[in-house]
Every structure is written in C-alpha cells, then in structure tokens.
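Quick bug: UvrABC system protein A output formatted oddly.
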Amino acid sequence: MSEIKDEIILRGLKENNLKNVDLNIPKEKIIVFTGLSGSGKSSVVFDTLATESRRQMTLNYPLYVRNQMPRYERPQADLMQNLSPVVVVEQRPIGGNPRSTVGTYMDINPLIRLLFSRIGKPSIGSATDFLIQNSFGRCPECGGFGEVVTPDLNKMIDYEKSLRDYAVKFKPLSPSGWQGRWMMTGGLFDPDKPIKDYSEEKLYLLLYGPREGERVYAPFHTKHGPQNHEWDGLLPRFTRLYINRDISKLKEVSQDDVLAVSTEFLCPTCQGSGLNPKVLECRINGLNIVEYDGLELPEILEELNNIKEPMGESIAQQAILHVKQLVDMGLGYLSLSRKIGTLSGGEAQRVKIARHLGSSLNNITYIFDEPSAGLHPEEVDMLIQMLRRLKDQHNTVIVIEHNLSVIKVADEIIEMGPGAGVNGGEVVYQGKLEGLDNSPTATALNHKLKINKNPRAIKSYFTINRVSNNNLKNISVNIPKNVLVSICGVSGSGKSSLMLEAFTELYPETIMVGQGGIGISNRSTLATYMGIMDDIRAIFSKETGQPAGLFSFNSAGACPICKGKGVLTPDVAFADPVTIPCEACGGTRYSDEVLSYQYQEKNVIEILDLTIDEAIKYFKMPKIIKRVHTLKDVGLGYLTLGQTTSSLSGGEIQRLKLASHLQKEGQIYLLDEPSLGLHTEDNEKLLDVFQNLVNRGNSVIIIEHNLNFIAASDWVIELGPGGGKQGGQIILVGTPEKMLNAETLTAKWLKDRVRKHFT
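Here's what came back:
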C-alpha cells in the first residue's frame, strides 16, 4: 500500500490577481514563495492559505465567542484541504504605544513583576504594584512619566511686551486663543501695558493667581453675554492644562509647543523610572526592578538562573525561555527596558520573530513575510538556523522571500509570475533549487555582483562632528556630496542614529524616506496617494463645468447604494462575512451621473482603469506626466491609476512610497533600506532611479544591507563592529573596491559573493 503524502491541497485559487492556481504544498518542509513584487505570492499565502486556516480555526468556538473574534471571509477558491493552524509573522513594523519596550512586547515584564512581588525584599503587595499605571506604583513627583516638566517664565513671558503684543509666547494663552482674549478683556490686567511695568501685586496675580485663601473672578464675554470665570494665574493654568497629563496625547497643541516654554529634567525622586521610591527599595540579589530591566539579556539570564527559591525558580524558568529566544536571534545586547520605537528595522524584525518561537506545539504552519527584511547578511545566517529548527520540530515553514541566501535553503521553491499585477498570478515553477531555470529568480541566483570600479569623483562633503546619539561613540565622519553613498553595518550598529537622527538634524532640508507604512485603505488609490486624482478632478471640472467633488467616489460622485465602496457587506449575523460587488454601480464606486461626463473620450472610470504605462501616453498635462513617470521609474508601470493601496504587495507599497518622495524637488535624498520587499530584478530598476538622481546633481544616501546596492555605490561607510554597546563606531570608509581588502562583516559577505562567481 502506497504511503499517503501529507500535503496542503489548494485548487482553483482566484484571490486578487490569481489565475485559477492549483498547488500541492508538502508539510514539514521549508517552502519559499518567490517572484516579482506583485506576482501573487501574498495572495496565495496570506489571502488564501492563512485566511482559510484562521477562518476554520474560529469555527471550533461557540457562536457567542466567535462574535468577539476577528471574522474571516472564505477566500475565492474551489478547494482548500489539509490545512493546519497558522502562526503568521508579518512584515509590518511593530506597533504599540511610546512606552512599549522589548520586555512588554515579549511578555517578559509581567513575569519579572510577579517574581519581584513573590521573592523581592522588602516585600511589596502584588505584581501590579510594580506598574507605573498603578496608583501605588507610580512616582508621586512625576506621575509615572519619569521626567519633570516645569514652566519656564523666561521662555513663556516677554516682559518688554504687553498682553496685546503677545507678551505670552505660548499660543493658547496668547491673544490668538480664547484664554489670551479673556485676559485682555476681563478687566484684571491692562492689555496695553508692558509686563515689566506691572506693579508687584498685579504681576503676582498674572503669573501665580490670587494669594492663598483669596478668589478672583473676571468676566468672559460669550455670545450669551459676560460670564464670570475664576482666574487662577498663568503658571497654575498652564501646569493644570498642559503639564499634569500625558503631553504626548495633546492634539491641537503639540508636545513641542509645551516643551518650548518649559524646562524638562529627569525626576530626582524616581531617577527617571516613573516608579514609587518604595517600589524601588524591593530587591532580588541586590537589584531592584529598574536595574533588572536595564541589564543586557545574558546578564538577566545569569540573574534568573541564580534564583533557587522554589516559587521564584518556577517563575524565573518561564522568563528564561523568552529571554533565550532573543539571545538566540543575536539580540543579546538589548535590555528589557529598550523602547520598541528605538529599534532598527532588523532588530524589530528579529524581536517579532523571537516572540513566536516559544511554543512547543508542532504540526503548525509558520508563515513568514520576508523575515530577512532589515537583516545584515551575517544575521540572515541566524535566521536560516531558526527556520531549520522550526522545521525539525515537525512544523511546516512557508516563507515569502527575495533574499537569495534564504531561497537557497528551501526544500521546495514556488515561484509566482511571470510578471506582476495583471501579468502575474500564475505558478511559473515548483520544485527543487536545481531545477529552477529561465525565470526572474533563476536569473537573480546567477546574477553576478558588479563591484563599482569607476566611482564618481568626490569634490565636497557633508560633515558630521563628534556625535553621540544613542550608542554612537563620539564619532565624526565626512559623507561625500553628489554621489551614491551606502551606509551599512549589522543591525543596531548605529546607522539610524547617525543618519536618521544626527544627519537630518544638521541637514534638515534632507528628503527622507523611512520604513514606515503609507496608511493603506480600500478608499485610497495610486492616483489619490500620488496627488494625481486632484488634477484629474480639476480637468473634468474645467471640461464639464461641474464641481470637482462630483468626480470623487469619496464625495459627491459616490454611488448612492454602496456609498463609494464598490462592494456591499450585508449583515449575515453569526455566519461568515461575505462581500458582494455593488449591482447598482457594477463595482465602479461612481454614480451614473458621473459616468455621463467625458474628457478626451473617456469617463473617470476609464481613466482610472489606465495602467501607468497607458496614462503616460494619454495625458498631456506636465504635472500629471511627471508623477506617472515617477511611478514608471520605480517599476510600477503595470498598475492602474485606480488600484487601491490596500491591494498592493509589500514591495509595491515600498516603491509607491519611494515614488511619492522622489517627485519632490530636492538636493539630498536619504533612504532607509529602499530594497525592502523587492525582487532582485526590481532592485535593478530602483538602482537606475538612484543613479539618475545623482546624475542630475543630487546626493543620494542609502542605509542598506543589500550587497548589490552596496557594490554599485560610489562610497561606503560601515558602522560596527557589533550592535548595541558593541557598535557605534566607524569601521570602514571608502569605495566598494576597498572593501575587497577589508576585514569587516559586510566586507566578508561581499567577498564571499564575488568569490562564488569566480570559482
């Protein structure tokens, strides 16, 4: 009897651009999905396989529980069999609030608090007493914020001016705000007398309010006539409204506005921890909870292993597991107190992966979306070991990846294509690495690394002197102007601190393209995101005499039935949600009236259905032509103007973001890992864009791990030698050719790639 093959069976997949795809995916293997950005990888892996697995998992719960859980619509497919539970590690940046740390994200901090509440001396009541959100736990001086912000009179008041002449420099308390107008019209103060000429009594009343035990009222003029309000003094009012609260949550007034008229310093009571001093007295082996959180991870492991009390040991063992996961991912130099928002892209990616590795369950399908994103070649090696470890524990590992090192370790490769968008959506190859031939990925695997042997001449420099941001060790460096510069080094080596902080502070005119998202939505399209839609609406308005809002499906032109969504989601109570195209507009989103108007023989729908390549030939307006050319330059010529941003792949979003920044006129472009999410073939197009920018007289600086970009640069600056405390130094400066004789980590991998093509 033949052995039954355990594999995931998928038939007739039609999500997004998929063209009736059939696939058998073997279990307990490393499966790499590759192909051009937008070729259909995510449509198979996320929109079909992961969505259906999650949908079926929720069916195991009672209906009243299901109503509280995310609800998934059944993907468009004929058959989906033998799915197993999925764990998805997406490419999206780690979210979380500004207080989120490595310890909170990894769920280690609750265990540490529990440990201190059980075995710490002197004893503190419960684990929640170690939280700054707890009334006992928070510092009474700073309210748990760790910093004391106090108003600075010399920054807030110009004593030479009168109230009417904006003596109060803080906007809400100046004549432009209602409180400033009240001070001028309430009768307590002369609005035209310079503050320096106020009597001692009047000055005290203005700044501090009435003396103790007294109350003073002044009429505030409203549309219902004057109403008496109690005057409390500028400083007490400012403190109450703008300081005694989380100033990061202020809306109309920014945090910067408040800090501009204040003095900020570390809270002396809690030393910046935000915790009650009584909590800080509680210690384990001489360390309080703040000192524990500040240790590097191997030091925490040592402390946790030293705990021998039975109750403490059982809690410590649970924490040890999570800490080890971070150390195994090469993040031993981090501490639990490290803010998530300060991590580099590569560090954040590895923290995210580590979070999912603690499970001892097997027969799980792990899905990784470009786990190599933001990782140095040295760190990709660690990632590969982790993927193999998961497979060895009898799990299926599915990876969407462009990194050639990861592709090479796959047990099976599935390449989607042949092109992207409407030209993709098919399986062009499935099998072993050695059988891969005549496809974009095969070409990439055989791609020879081209070292730039004729770098541009350097005539002048941007200068950075003695900077010590984060882990930078008082470094100075000259960065060449008007050439292509690569900044490289392992994750946490100081690249972001040097360039995204120190450099942009010195050169604020820099056009910076970071790693953040673009705010994707099913109501946002390529045309709206690039600002092209405003011009299209203006053209139609001028041509037809109708208001511009009529040509927007987010405004007056929306289909009255679906309200401009193009689809309807009827209430199906507890059943699976279902999305159906709107019959009234046929999914176009527009009302019938809008479609009756034309410009150059096309209505607005027909224009939005144009691909970028077609739009270049159709439009005559220079402003539109320039913007669509920018989209073509970054390799998005196959997308339509009306394509929603929510339907784009990670690589397409990355290039759309680049296009929006590259249309700005500037002289300095700084890009943080522009190769993220891109296939090698797409990278070549992007490199051409950068070279053209430099040829037009601009300076282009990229923070990159991608060896193709580094090799093609005119100048390379490497930071290191390690990450965290081991980083923060300049370890190499020079041309890519110079790297072939260097002994740095990036040089090691560059030489390795060059050597492979000559042996």
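Actually, after a second look the formatting is fine. The chain has 29 helices and 23 strands. Closing.
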